[in-house]
Amino acid sequence: MPNSSSVSEFLLLAFADTRELQLLHFGLFLGIYLAALLGNGLILTTVACDHRLHTPMYFFLLNLALLDLGCISTTVPKAMANSLWDTRAISYQGCAAQVFFFVFLSGAEYSFLTIMAYDRYVAICKPLHYGSLLDSRACAKMAAAAWGSGFLNAVLHTANTFSLPLCQGNAVDQFFCEIPQILKLSCSDAYLREVGALVFSVNLGFGCFVFIVLSYVQIFRAVLRIPSQQGRHKAFSTCLPHLAVVSLFLSTVVFAHLKPPSISSTSLDLVVAVLYSVVPPAVNPLIYSMRNQKLKDALRKLMP
Questions:
Q1: 269 and 219 in contact (C-beta within 8 Å)?
Q2: DSSP 8-state assignment for residue 178
Q3: Among 110-124, 136-150, 170-184, which is the least confidently predicted range?
Q4: Measured distance CA(226)–CA(231) in Å, rounded
Q5: Among 24, 146, 154, 222, which residue's CB has the most CB atoms within a 10 Å radius?
Q6: How far apart are CA 237 and CA 239, in angstroms?
Q7: How far apart are CA 265 and CA 237, in angstroms?
Q8: Angle CA 296–301–304, to nearest 5
Q9: Are 120 and 58 in contact (CB under 8 A)?
């Protein structure tokens, strides 16, 4: 049986067997990818160029857009290339790079979503202290912590996963290199170290989730105490896009990795992976711009 030293490439899961469906998949992913590039690129350009958007909320949104671009660029181009050229292969080094960057960028994105919950909490519950609690130095430190934690998390998981001996072939049952699918190829009991690292990361992620929930409990209590309906509507409108993005991110990730084995299948795993790795980076810019008048106005100025 092959081990990690003899595996020079992995075989990713194909979306379709017929040439027509492969080209359809290529066209579909190309459309989604271009939409993500356009949407996130517009947010990056708008926030960078409009001085009125140089505030903590939009600084964190800029980082989120950059991470979304990185996430979708880690998985989709290779899947499109494989469909276009009718191949399933990805090199061992390419697979390790996919795992590293996907874990790095998605972990950092979750950290930024947690920070953005704190930003909304301070803006609504402690508005008089907003300037001191979220000054430029504090924002830079939080951003560095988010990027740094994602990087360290990715190093830990990539090193653990690709140090395992592989005894179950080289066929990955997913359209990109995903840690749970690679663990299925490892020798029995050899994967327990990486499982321990995954449990540690899940606990950290759950801590972030509790922080987000508690922040929003305080936010909703504060908003409901606002006497005017217009004031409540304005406060809610600044929180709903973030809440929608968090809900989309967490619901798809949780379902992907905690769904009951009885309903698990290769086709369902493929669809769920697309939902949590491809759809959010394309949809997030739309969610953030729909109810944000300042961002809409800045976009109109950018495109006369």
A1: no
A2: -
A3: 170-184
A4: 6
A5: 146
A6: 5
A7: 39
A8: 115
A9: no
Taking the CA of residue 142 as centre, how many other CA atoms within 13 Å lie in the half-sphere pointing to its CB?
A: 23
Q: What is the pLDDT of residue 115?
A: 95
Cα–Cα distance, 198 to 239 (Å, whole number) = 30
Residue 103 vs residue 296, higher pLDDT: 103
Q: Which two tokens stand for residue 59?
A: 């600084």
Mean pLDDT, rounded, for 37-46:
93
- Going by pLDDT thresholds of 50, 70 and 90, the confidence category of residue 261 is low
Amino acid occupying residue 157: H
229-258 helix and 279-290 helix, angle to the nearest 10 degrees = 180
Give the closest residue to 160 by CA, choosing from 99, 207, 70, 98. 99
pLDDT for residue 2: 45
Which one is predicted more confidently, 59 or 250?
59
Mean per-residue pLDDT for 50-75? 93
Of the pLDDT bands very low, low, confident and very high (cuts 50, 70, 90), residue 140 is: very high
Alpha carbon separation from 146 to 108, 109, 116, 150 (Å, rounded): 5, 8, 11, 6
Beta-bridged to residue 32, according to DSSP, are: none
H runs (alpha helix) in the chain: 19-49, 56-85, 92-125, 130-133, 136-161, 179-183, 192-224, 229-258, 266-277, 279-290, 293-302
Transcribe 70-132 into DSSP letters.
Answer: HHHHHHHHHHHHHHHHT--EEEHHHHHHHHHHHHHHHHHHHHHHHHHHHHHHHHHH-GGGHHH
Residue type, 121: Y
